[in-house]
Amino acid sequence: MTGIPPSNPAIGVAMQLIAKPISTGLLTAIIALSVGSPGVAGPLEDGMAAHDRGDVENALRLIQPLADQGDAEAQYYLGFIYRTGLGIAEDNTEAVKWYRKAADQGHVSAQYYLAIMYNLGEGIPENDVEAVKWYRKAADQGHASAQNSLGIMYAKGEGVIQNDVEAYKWWNLAAAQGVGSAKKSKAIVAKNMTREQVAEAQRLSAEWKPVSER
Q1: Is residue 30 predicted with pLDDT exceeding 80?
Q2: 145/179 Cα distance (integer angstroms)
Q3: Residue 209 and residue 193: Cα distance in Å, rounded?
Q4: Three-class SS of the chain
Q5: How far is CA 181 from the centre of its chain?
Q6: CA dihedral in degrees (170, 178, 110, 60; nearest 10)?
Q7: In the structure, what pLDDT confidence band is assigned to residue 37 with cuts at 50, 70 and 90?
Q8: Residue 7 φ then ψ, to 5°
Q9: Rg for the chain, CA atoms, rounded
Q10: Model pTM score
């Protein structure tokens, strides 16, 4: 992904969702929903709570063993901590390491952020083919931002052969999940497509079904 501004306005609109991860508090809430019932605490939840309080030493003491044992949520959270540098020295190489471990287990958000690392060349050499691979894995599981990003890659022809039909398809799916920039992008790219191409893209998105890796 180059630093040259995109010539296609649809791409410029869509690129807004790629660069930065979500806040630590929101991430904590999201993970808490996936790892336990309300009021049920465990080492991971305690570690996230410690990190939110700024107690990084205790957070790592609780989360690191879980990550070492193969817990995908803990691995993802470690990746987040190292990428954002919240309370610890930012280390994109470590972030990539832990995102990859979680992504290899089918963790959808880890797949998305690993794709971003490849896309932006953070902590690992920039590689658009690998970025597309991991965006697609997350998009196939229904990750809206990954679908939006995959649409960008198809529109720009980065890591994949340029294809407006595929770009429209993925933006259509992302828009259906509330990604506003995807809605704008598909409307813009549609102006350069035939009615037959738009119909084909709509058919492909209508036939799409999510595939779970976990």
Answers
A1: no
A2: 7
A3: 24
A4: CCCCCCCCHHHHHHHHHCCCCCCHHHHHHHHHHHHCCCCCCCHHHHHHHHHHCCCHHHHHHHHHHHHHCCCHHHHHHHHHHHHHCCCCCCCHHHHHHHHHHHHCCCCHHHHHHHHHHHHHCCCCCCCHHHHHHHHHHHHHCCCHHHHHHHHHHHHHCCCCCCCHHHHHHHHHHHHHCCCHHHHHHHHHHHCCCCHHHHHHHHHHHHHCCCCCCC
A5: 15
A6: 170
A7: very low
A8: -80, -25
A9: 18
A10: 0.83
**Residue 86: what pLDDT?**
80
- Distance in angstroms (rounded) separating the CA atoms of residues 214 and 211: 9
- At residue 5 the predicted structure's pLDDT band, cuts being 50, 70 and 90, is very low
Q: Could you tell me the two tokens for 108?
A: 């959808």
pLDDT tens, residue by residue, 46-104:
999 998 898 989 999 999 999 999 999 999 999 999 999 888 899 999 999 999 999 99
Are 116 and 19 within 8 A, CB to CB? yes
Q: Are 154 and 167 a contacting pair, CB within 8 Å?
A: yes
Q: What is the spatial distance between Cα 46 and Cα 62, in angstroms, rounded to a whole number?
A: 7
Instruction: Tell me if 30 sits within 8 A of 108, measured CB to CB.
Output: no
**pLDDT tier, 19 (very low <50, low <70, confident <90, very high otherwise):** very low
Q: In order of start, what are the domains of the chain with their CATH numbers?
A: 22-107 (1.25.40), 143-208 (no CATH)
